[in-house]
Amino acid sequence: QSALPAALMCRLAGIGLRLAYARENPYRLLTDWVVDRDTSRAGGRHEVRRQLDLLRSVGFEAPETSLQFACRPQDNVSLLEKLAGSGANLERSYIVVHPGASAPSRRYPAVRFGEAAARVARETGSQLIVVAGPSEAAQADEVVQGARGTAACLTGALSLGELAALIGHARLVLCNNSAPAHLAAALGTPVVVPYALTNSQHTPWRVPSRVLYREVPCRDCLKSVCPEGHHACLLGVSSEQVAAAALELLVVDRPAPAVAPLAAAGALPRLAVDGLGVAPLQGESA
Question: For 223-282, what is each residue's pLDDT tens digit?
Fold first, then answer.
C-alpha cells in the first residue's frame, strides 16, 4: 500500500513533518522518507518495529514499545450488565472466542474454534464467551455449536471499549488475524491465532501468544480470498492443535480471576509483557 495518498492529505492539511516509507519518489508530498526495502513479507520486520525504525530515522526514540489501550471505567460497568444479560456466570473466569475476520482467507472454521475452546474451558475450569460483530452472527452460532452449547454469546452487542474490557480481563483469547488479537496484545492477554499468512508482519506484538498455520507452497499470498481454493494453510490446523497451544499458554493450576471484579476495576491497567510466543513465525521479543 502506497503512503502517498495519505501524504497528500497531510500536505493539504499543512502538516509540517510528513514522514513515511515509500518505494517511489514522493517529491514534495513527504518532507522525509525512507526507501521501503521490506519487499518480501516473509521474514520481514514486524509492522510495529518498522514504524519505530521510521521514527528513529528522524531522531525520535520511543521510550515504550508495547501496545497500549486504555479502557474507561464506564466500559467495565456496561460490560458487566451485558454479560449478566447473556447468561454468563459472573463468578467464573472466562475465555474469549472471536471467530470473525474481514477477509475470508483469514477465517479459521468457527466450529473448530468452538471445539478447541470447549476443551480449554473444560481443562481450566473457565467458561466460554463468544463475541462477534453484527455481520458475524452465523460464525458465532457455529462456535457455540462446536462448543456443544456451553458458551455465552455476545453478537453485535459490544462497543470497542466494552470489547477491550472483556478481553483485558479474560484468561485467554482465541481469534483470527483480526483486531481482537491486537487488543489482546495491548492489554497483555494471552492469545492463540490460527494465522493465514496474508501478512506475517502483523502477528501479536509482545504478548504471550501462539500463531498456528500449516506450511504450504502458496504461503504469503497476501490475498483476501484463497487463490488456490483449498485454504490449506488454515484447514491444516486441527482444533486439537489450537487447544494444545492454548493450554501451553495457561498455567492451569493458577487461581483464575472471576468476571465480577470488572465493576471495581476502573480503568484497566496496561500489562507490559516481555517475550513473544510466535512460532514458527519470526517474532519480536523486545
Answer: 888 888 888 888 899 999 999 999 999 875 455 555 544 444 433 333 323 332 334 333
Burial label, 145 (beta-carbon count in 10 A; 0-12, 13-18, 19+): middle
Round to whole Å and give the CA distance between 51 and 53. 5
Asked whether residue 114 falls in the same domain as residue 249, the answer is yes
Residue range of the domain that includes 31 = 4-56
What gap in Å lies between CA 189 and CA 47, rounded to an integer?
20
Quote the pTM value: 0.81
- Radius of gyration, CA atoms only, the chain: 20
Q: Does 259 map to a domain? A: yes
Q: CATH number of the domain at 170, please.
A: 3.40.50.2000
Residues 189-203 have pLDDT tens digits of: 999 999 876 566 788
User: Which residues are within 8 A (CB) of 132 and not within 5 positions of it... i.e. 6 or more apart?
Assistant: 98, 99, 100, 139, 140, 153, 154, 155, 156
Q: Are residues 155 and 224 in the same domain?
A: yes
Question: Which string of DSSP letters, residue by residue, matches 235-284?
Answer: HTS-HHHHHHHHHHHS-TTSPPPPSTTHHHH-SPPPPP-------SS---
Within this chain, do residues 88 and 195 fall inside the same structural domain, yes or no? yes
